[in-house]
Amino acid sequence: RVHPRREILMNLPFRPTLLFSCIVLSVSLAAAGEPPPSSPDHTPIYSVTAGRSVPVSVTFEEPAELAELRLYFKMMTAEEYLFLPMTDVGRGTYTANLPPARNWTKGIDYLLLRKSMAGEIRKSKPFRLLVMNDFDSPPPSAGEIQVQAEDPSAGVENHDFAVPLRVSVTVDRLLAGATEDPYPPISVPGPGGGSSGIFGGLGGMSFSIKVGGVSFRYGSFSGR
Description:
Layout: H1 4-10, H2 16-31, E1 43-49, E2 54-60, E3 66-75, E4 82-85, E5 87-90, E6 93-98, E7 107-116, E8 121-123, E9 127-132, E10 145-149, H3 154-157, E11 165-169, E12 179-180, E13 207-211, E14 214-218
């Protein structure tokens, strides 16, 4: 006869040993100072400091296939995204700066949207940056920053940036119709450029991303 406690454990929808292993793994990562475990919708990379803009650079393995690259971003509490067209600075690298956030801002979500020469439009899953308060530094002196939006309400919702934003609404709406990559990126966070590089072999456009002081790699899916 099976002991009642053992029978209950056997009927659970998960194995307690596996659950315990996952808990131990999560605690070990947190203790080591690694990024928190990924959620289904966001991949936390690291934290940023309030009052400072965040440089973002993306380097493509085959830039000739790329027609357009946009950096979409929003406050964690907002629904609609703002975006910045990323600037081609040569050798397959594109850059843009996320505007600085105010103190007491929970976080910034951002994603990358790229359009190929063949007309294929894809977007990454959103990433999340946690914002750390900084009451010692002077407020940013940058003037008004020009950004774009696909929905007029984006300018109203995203009001927690530390500098004024001038929002223009575009008629070239790509975000809603873009195909989302089916999984978060294969990422290897690390300080500076220590983990920079391009991940290939999955088809489509593969690229590396550097956000602030952290680099990671992204293997993109393609619909073709």
